[in-house]
# Entry
Amino acid sequence: MRTLSLLCLLAAATGCESTAVTVTFAGLVGAQPAACGQTYSGLGTTSTDFELADLRLYVHDVRLLTTDGREVPVTLDQDGEFQLEELALLDFEDGTAGCENGDSGVNERVTGTVAEGGPFDGIRFRLGVPFERNHADVSTAPAPLNRPGMFWNWNGGYKFLRIDGRTTGQPGGVNIHIGSTGCDGDGRGNVTACANENRPEIELRGADPTTTRIVVDVAALVARSDLDVDMGGANGCQSGVDDPECLEIFHSMGLSHGGSPATDPQRLFRFE
# Structure
């Protein structure tokens, strides 16, 4: 960003204007829009029925990719609700029809400005909350970090991705909560590091992200998981390094888990 700002200063004689951009996301379960209380069939290795109860995630460090391979950082609009500094909350639930842990606000886009106008054919961003903002007091944090339902605790920080639902085999609920684990403090109330940061960098190529939506597909994420049986650890996958249900979920996000590296590309996000 400093480099781009400097270029603008050097080009002041001829003018350097920022360009407004919008990156649109869509929450889907397979080919269907994600909606609170909606039941979807054919999920996971058992082709179970899945009733959605939550779908939210944080993203940050958004960069557009030009056709010649350069990164152009997006300076996010500071809207006081869903965007703060370089962070944005994508919220596909509206607090109704079984999404009792959510709220009425919905946000399906990231807005901001770039210092050059492309052409673009890709995007990079990170899933999660930056470390500097991750271990805060949710009761006093500014929006969008003021959502208690997206927070674990001071040591663990925020849930970067929250997917909740109910399946045929687990009608009481299946939760997918991705966040940092193994975090250490300095004894004075400050977290100094996390052994497992779990902030994957997502890269999509082949389309202009300012004109082509990015799909967040729950069905693709869980395609290699059995959602009908809890195999141990916390319910579903809540980022535990010893939780067997997290292995395929993590790998489908491009993350290693318990020493097992991801060998395939991430499956959660795609252009459509």
Residues 13 and 113 are 21 Å apart (CA to CA). The helical segments are 2-10, 131-134, 218-221, 246-251. The chain has a mean pLDDT of 93.
